[in-house]
Amino acid sequence: MKLILDKNISKYYLQTLCLLFFPGAKFSETEVVTPDTPVVEVTLKNEDDGAVCTATVTIGDKSVSRTHKEMYDHLPKNKTENMAANKAFFSAAEAFFGYTPPWGILTGVRPTKIVLDYLNEGMTKDQTVKELRKRYLLYPKKAILATDIARNESKIIKRYPLDTCSIYISIPFCPTRCSYCSFVSFTTKKLLALIPAYLEALKLELSLIAKQIKETGFKLKTIYIGGGTPTTLNENQLEDLLSYIDKLFDTSTLDEFTLEAGRPDTITEKKLQSAVNHNVTRISINPQSLNNYVLQEIDRCHTAEMFFKAFETARRVGVPCINTDLIIGLPADDIESYSDTLEKIIDLAPENITAHTFCVKRSADILKGGRDIFARENFEVSKCVDYTQIMTKKSGYIPYYMYRQKNAKANLENVGYCKKGTEGLYNILMMEEIHSIFAAGAGAVTKFVGERNVKIERIFNPKYPYEYLEQDREKAFEETRKIMDGFFVKG
């Protein structure tokens, strides 16, 4: 599609909003316009009391224009101009398609960050909901959801000052690759053969992190082992890694220790028993769907029956908290199939249920062959999201964290639900950027957090395992130490 924007209007933000109405669109300033080319033009005029933008959406011989004026009363001039442009485009596209995205013009991964700011300013729930609707054009139910989650998060956040920290450990390997996956995870025999050397490098990095945490006086509160699928490790490898972590850190005093078991086809009783023996308090077993046909369609190499067996095993060995991930809007799934999955999961009564809206990155295998994953199925997916909120609330779960992704179906959200007192702590601390996170392994990102919402420093590890193995860990660690020392000294 083609964007024609006034020079003062943010191109990035308008492109993000365009994706709400043109899923999967590619942008080009030089594109030759054909009858099928979507064209969006936004013009700006500044008046004494506000910015006025007119947006026009055109495809072929159909064209719709809308104008919006944003007053200079609460934002700097440049932000007021962009807000006017965003609302003008939103109104024009809404009229063009006859469809209103429920999150309005609010984009970005962390919508509850804005809400937390409002609450910290002293706004009540009702005032916050009203402000979200006015400023960002949210549906009432989305404004209420974001506010409820932020209020729940705020109770947790107070317990974690800036001298606390978490550790993320990356195991970027999977037994096979799901067709919708875009994570850096490795499945071929050649790459899986890197695991022994990878674990040795990982252990070295963890020992350096342990030393750094001790020297700086951080208080370690949570550890999260993610992937990939960490239980791709065989029983001896997982035991060795968990034993090593136990030697470096007093895991018995952690507030939370999570292991993503993820794929039911990688789970054995011995692996789960090893996790419990080493103080793991939370695991994820992720069916995504309990419809075997849907699982086949997405190349998920397990069955619903395998999930039930893995879940029963986790209960039997005494895992304190179990999370199950579900994906709303999978190919071949529908409201009947999804609701059946959700109801069966609720019957199992896991402590956490995370409901993701289906989102596919352009590197995913499922896009090969020209399959149109970005087609709108807003009504069906929205019904599934609404049903999830209704059924989890009815069953005693509360929404405790949320994030959003670009190109998610119907521009909808991912929400974690929990039984009272079983919130996934790392999820909140990471998503809301509450304290520093030391990250180990390929693709992992260390994040130093100073003044909240103001000062953050990120350090990226090599993306691929073979690059990670080639890196001089001692030298890389010294670079990290220098960055960290400078960050906190200046902070």
Protein model, in words:
This protein is α/β, with parallel strands linked by helices and 491 residues long. It has three domains: 2-97, Double Stranded RNA Binding Domain; 111-156, no CATH class; 157-440, pyruvate-formate lyase- activating enzyme, CATH 3.80.30. The chain contains 16 helices and 15 strands. The strands form three sheets. A nine-stranded mixed beta sheet has the order 11-12-10-9-8-7-6-5-13, with helices on both faces. The protein is globular and about 65 Å long.
The CATH architecture of the largest domain: Alpha-Beta Horseshoe
Task: Provide the β-strand percentage band.
Answer: 15-25%
How would a textbook summarize the main sheet?
9 strands, mixed
| CATH topology group of the largest domain | pyruvate-formate lyase- activating enzyme
CATH superfamily of the largest domain: tm_1862 like domain
The CATH C-level class name of the largest domain: Alpha Beta
Number of domains: 3
**Contiguous uncertain segments of 5+ residues:** 370-376
The shape is globular
Query: Number of helical segments?
Result: 16
Structural class: alpha/beta
Q: How are the strands of the biggest sheet laid out side by side?
A: 11-12-10-9-8-7-6-5-13
Rg over alpha carbons:
24 Å
Mean pLDDT: 91
Distance between the termini: 43 Å
The counted number of beta strands is 15
The helix content is 40-55%
